[in-house]
């Protein structure tokens, strides 16, 4: 009931925004950042612009969240995606720290999944098949023999409804999507909300929520590619991951089921280590991934919001910390097969960005020893991830 009301209100807001934007009054992308006293940026609410129309007539909106320190984040309804994150470097200069595209057409195609929410099941399901309560479900195989990131039209490809939320804690937008029963082969109508909040502490907080009307599986993540220098490769970024174990994979990147110790391997990031230090190591798992493309078993208790990742980029001085309630983290070192044409005439080389995909473990629906990804009617899936930006001397 509550969800039906929410969706009508959301539609109303979108229409209002679209009307305002066709009047050409809402795009503030050329204006300098609004810098206001602490707490007041959130009161103003995010600004919105229409960035284009899809072939089926659906408009795509983009919202700009700003905070009291001048940080800016843009998020779009297509794929509920992060399009940009502009944070200060150690000299105070704002720069974009995520990879992105220039045109809507590029965002529509988006083969590397820049910035998007991935679902209904982030990461892989072996053979595109799982059994739940005695019924076997068949999904698209869109990554070799496996199902990846929700299929051929996953949550990254749909246009979400958006509702700006003026909150005390910062500027926020809530994206909502109702995934019909049977969509991409998954059982159950799944109602999903993802709320992005930019706080005055330079935190971008993602709160996920989902409910279903029939038993299903859920795994949601964000697929932003970070580059804290804003350019070049990320090989010199110093990375720390609080994980004693990781899940080794077979040749098709499906976990073998083992939780292997990171000790003595290129996967030991328990103390800060440049991403590039061991990325070409002679190690079977590195060879399979073409670099890092692995799930780390995060220390601490899943469900507790705890800091699990720390990154430092020495040239800009920028830092990134990640807190999450999730049990796992896919660390993907952007192992692009060929360079990608990106924003502002840039060409992104191999390892131009890295993903920190907080998640449940890949292929959990087929691996009973992994934390469960089953969601049943009456239950609410919740998950929180915080990306906290800063600088160091
Ligand atoms: C995830 C996967 C990678 C790759 C990217 C998208 O990180 O684990 O193998 O498919 O998404 O390019």
What does this structure look like?
The structure is a single chain. Helix content is 10%, strand content 37%. The chain is mainly β. The protein has one domain: Distorted Sandwich (Beta-galactosidase, Chain A, domain 5). The protein has a nine-stranded antiparallel β-sheet with strand order 11-12-13-14-30-24-23-18-21. Strands 17-28-25-22-19-20 form a six-stranded antiparallel β-sheet, with no helix packed on it. Strands 1-2-3-4-5 form a five-stranded antiparallel β-sheet, covered by helices on one side. It starts with a helix and ends with a strand. The model is unreliable at 1-42 (pLDDT under 50). The structure holds alpha-D-galactopyranose. Residues 112-113, 123, 148, 253, 293, 330, 332, 355, 357 line the site of alpha-D-galactopyranose (GLA).
Secondary structure topology:
Elements: H1 2-22, H2 40-44, E1 47-53, E2 59-66, E3 72-76, E4 81-88, E5 94-96, H3 104-109, E6 117-118, E7 124-125, E8 129-132, E9 135-138, E10 147-148, E11 161-167, E12 170-179, E13 190-198, E14 203-212, E15 216-217, E16 221-222, E17 225-226, E18 238-241, E19 245-247, E20 260-261, E21 273-274, H4 284-289, E22 293-297, E23 306-312, E24 318-324, E25 328-332, E26 340-341, E27 347-348, E28 354-359, E29 374-375, E30 381-391
Bound molecules: alpha-D-galactopyranose.
């Amino acid at each position: 009931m509550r969800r039906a009301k929410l969706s009508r209100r959301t539609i109303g807001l979108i229409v209002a925004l679209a009307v305002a934007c066709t009047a050409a009054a809402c795009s503030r992308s050329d204006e300098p950042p609004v810098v206001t006293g602490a707490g007041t940026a959130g009161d103003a609410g995010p600004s919105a612009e229409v960035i284009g129309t899809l072939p089926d007539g659906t408009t795509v909106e983009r919202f700009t969240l700003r905070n009291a320190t001048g940080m800016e984040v843009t998020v779009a309804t297509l794929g509920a995606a992060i399009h940009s994150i502009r944070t200060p470097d150690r000299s105070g200069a704002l720069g974009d720290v995520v990879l992105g595209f220039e045109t809507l057409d590029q965002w529509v195609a988006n083969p590397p999944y820049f910035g998007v929410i991935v679902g209904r099941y982030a990461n892989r399901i072996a053979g595109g098949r799982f059994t739940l309560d005695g019924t076997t479900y068949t999904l698209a195989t869109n990554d070799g023999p496996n199902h990846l990131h929700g299929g051929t039209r996953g949550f990254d490809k749909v246009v979400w409804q958006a509702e700006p939320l003026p909150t005390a804690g910062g500027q926020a937008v809530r994206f909502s999507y109702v995934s019909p029963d049977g969509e991409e082969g998954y059982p159950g109508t799944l109602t999903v909300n993802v709320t992005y909040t930019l706080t005055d502490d330079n935190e971008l907080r993602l709160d996920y929520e989902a409910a279903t009307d029939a038993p299903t599986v859920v795994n949601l993540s964000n697929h932003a590619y970070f580059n804290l220098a804003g350019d070049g490769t990320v090989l010199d970024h110093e990375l720390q991951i609080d994980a004693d174990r990781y899940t080794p994979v077979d040749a098709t990147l499906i976990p073998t089921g083992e939780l292997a110790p990171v000790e003595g391997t290129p996967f030991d990031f328990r103390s800060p280590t440049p991403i590039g230090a061991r990325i070409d190591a002679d190690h079977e798992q590195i060879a399979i991934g073409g670099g890092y493309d692995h799930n780390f078993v995060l220390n601490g208790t899943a469900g507790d919001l705890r800091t699990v990742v720390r990154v430092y980029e020495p040239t800009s001085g920028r830092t990134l910390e990640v807190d999450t309630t999730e049990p796992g983290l896919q660390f993907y070192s952007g192992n692009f097969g060929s360079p990608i044409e990106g924003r502002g005439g840039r060409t992104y080389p191999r390892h131009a960005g890295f993903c920190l995909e907080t998640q449940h473990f890949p292929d959990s629906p087929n691996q009973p020893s992994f934390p469960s990804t089953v969601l049943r009617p009456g239950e609410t899936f919740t998950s929180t991830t915080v990306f906290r930006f800063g600088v160091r001397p």
